[in-house]
Amino acid sequence: MEGLKIPFLFSSLFSILVVSNAVDTITKTHSTAGSNTIVSSGGSFEMGFFSLGNSQNTYLGIWYKKISPKTVVWVANREIPLIDSWGVLTIINPGIIALVNSTGSVIWSPNVTGSTQDPVAQLMESGNLVVKDANDTSEHFLWQSFDYPCNTLLPGMKLGKSFVMGLERHLSSWKSSDDPAPGEFTNWCDPQGYPQNILSRGSVDLFRTGPWNVVSGFVLSHDGVVEHWTWIDRTQEWILYLTGPTDNCDKYKLCGPNGSCNVRNLPSCGCLSKFVPRNQTEWGNRDWSNGCVRRTTLDCKSGDGFLKYSQYKMPDTRSSWFDKNMTLRECEMSCLENCSCMAYTNLDIRGGGNGCLLWFGELIDMREYSEDGPDIYIRMASSELVQQVGLNGKKRKIVPVTLAILIALLLLVLHSMFCCNGYMSPKYAIDGLFSVKSDVFSIGVLVLEIVSGKKNRGFYHPGHSLNLLGHAWRLYEEGKSLELIDETLWDLRYQTEMLRSIHVGLLCVQESLEDRPSMSSIVLMLGNEATLPRAKQPGFFTARNVLQPSSSSSKEATTSANEITITLSSAR
Ligand SMILES: *[C@@H]1O[C@H](CO)[C@@H](O)[C@H](O)[C@H]1NC(C)=O
Ligand SMILES: *[C@@H]1O[C@H](CO)[C@@H](O)[C@H](O)[C@H]1NC(C)=O
Ligand SMILES: *[C@@H]1O[C@H](CO)[C@@H](O)[C@H](O)[C@H]1NC(C)=O
Ligand SMILES: *[C@@H]1O[C@H](CO)[C@@H](O)[C@H](O)[C@H]1NC(C)=O
Ligand SMILES: *[C@@H]1O[C@H](CO)[C@@H](O)[C@H](O)[C@H]1NC(C)=O
Ligand SMILES: *[C@@H]1O[C@H](CO)[C@@H](O)[C@H](O)[C@H]1NC(C)=O
Ligand SMILES: *[C@@H]1O[C@H](CO)[C@@H](O)[C@H](O)[C@H]1NC(C)=O
């Protein structure tokens, strides 16, 4: 393409240019040259020729029409300026969009995919310059400038690989403030594991940020600073929202593997809690590159657990795996099941948290934040796990849930043996079976209340109008029973027991009497490994008709559930 000569009739070209104003498209009959520009339909962006500083070098570029000083967001001929300030963007035969210099050489031309007899180039309101067939009104572009970012990421642009086009889209800094040729800094999206953006100088990684949600703009300055701009609708302007790297702790991998950086400490590098320097001598000499190791080695076979680290920058995700649908507890389980999984976290901390991110191998490039950081759960040997959980300001020890339930059952059985006959309403006493089975129902309620730490009465969930039984049933049906378990009882080591308890609880509250187990089988069910029948829909599961038939005993059960919990916790 380069060196192709095209004869020009400058005078006739000029006349075409003069009549055209406020158009957003270059066509066969409309080019742009000199001080003529094209403007996007809504007037946000303008494309034309510009020079920088005192230089004569002229470039074809796109800038914000309404922002001054002129802020260039994209440059076509970054590396090959027009040296005598004259050029034209036009369509040459056989249907090629080209930037042509004054001696008729094509110095830049977009590589269109597919061919067309009649291409046009249109500057869209988003700032995207697109090449398409003149007759094509769809969004089918033969080429678009958004696939070839310079130093600015506009809303709607994506970084990373486009597998269809075989492109790797990244930001590259300008060489200097008056030379838009690619400089030494790049900002690119690393798709290994969970995608993250990395600022590099040549092949050296400097700074890592999470994946960007592109409703804002990013500019990579010529001196290697990523500026995050955000659009303010009310004032109709961009404001500088964040820049990075900002401090010492932003330096990639500064504190080595398993290390953590905190700008308020001196020196800033430390080991994560329960980790120690790999080499104390080196660490003492401020050589942090070898990082830290766990002070107690993991023992995957005999059981590890996880310790919560709050407000940390997520470690490098290059050796991670993620699933957007998993809950935090499912996430914990899948991490525990794989001995090489070192940590996990919620992918999206909005709305209570969802999604799962797992790390395999080293934890690299972590830093402490004073606020606004996610929680990360790091794998620890079980001896490092402290079983203290804050509850109402008090500390209490976790009782394995089955034990609590068995004790509750015992109390209930005793209760029904010694005091219930006289206590129950005559209506229930008529039918012996019904009375026993309604106690089974109460046990079910009690079990679910203990496991969930919530009362059935007055149970409220923002997502539906079910009571606790309905809620438990719903989670069970979705295969998410683990979500029911009370935070203070939550302990992965007892998850099978907990799931079993919920299952048994649901069997006890079945709608039909025949589906409820007998008293004696409840104890067996909780204890042994026999497969339980699938629970069907429970009785009385909406908030309105809560437990009408067994109201007396269930009321009793609700209170005792609470008492039992309290008794057990203070007994330890
Ligand atoms: C136009 O471009 C060609 C090829 O790059 C170059 O040889 C020629 O000097 C340029 N003409 C001017 C006036 O810059
Ligand atoms: C067009 O493709 C060629 C070969 O792949 C490449 O050298 C050239 O830089 C591309 N031009 C543009 C404007 O992307
Ligand atoms: C574009 O449409 C016009 C009118 O519909 C038609 O005459 C022309 O041949 C079409 N051009 C191409 C390249 O398909
Ligand atoms: C710790 O590092 C120092 C200096 O690199 C080295 O001489 C020493 O052998 C290392 N110690 C251990 C235990 O690896
Ligand atoms: C980080 O900690 C883990 C667990 O102790 C250890 O296996 C790994 O080797 C550590 N990384 C380095 C570089 O010391
Ligand atoms: C995630 O959940 C959504 C909606 O619940 C579903 O459409 C999608 O298929 C799920 N994705 C995976 C990978 O399971
Ligand atoms: C653990 O996870 C890694 C990384 O996803 C995978 O390669 C490995 O096969 C898994 N191991 C087991 C036992 O599932």
UniProtKB/TrEMBL annotation:
What ranges does the record give for the region Disordered, renumbered to this chain?
Answer: 551-572
- The Bulb-type lectin domain covers 23-144
Its membrane topology is listed as: Single-pass membrane protein
Q: Which N-terminal stretch is annotated as signal sequence?
A: 1-22
Asked if the record carries the keyword Flavoprotein, the reply is no
What SUPFAM superfamilies does its record include? alpha-D-mannose-specific plant lectins (SSF51110), Protein kinase-like (PK-like) (SSF56112)
Q: Which cellular compartments is it found in?
A: Membrane
Extract the CDD domains matched here: B_lectin (cd00028), PAN_AP_plant (cd01098)
Domain of life where this protein originates = Eukaryota
Q: Where are the transmembrane segments?
A: 398-418
Q: What is this protein called?
A: Apple domain-containing protein
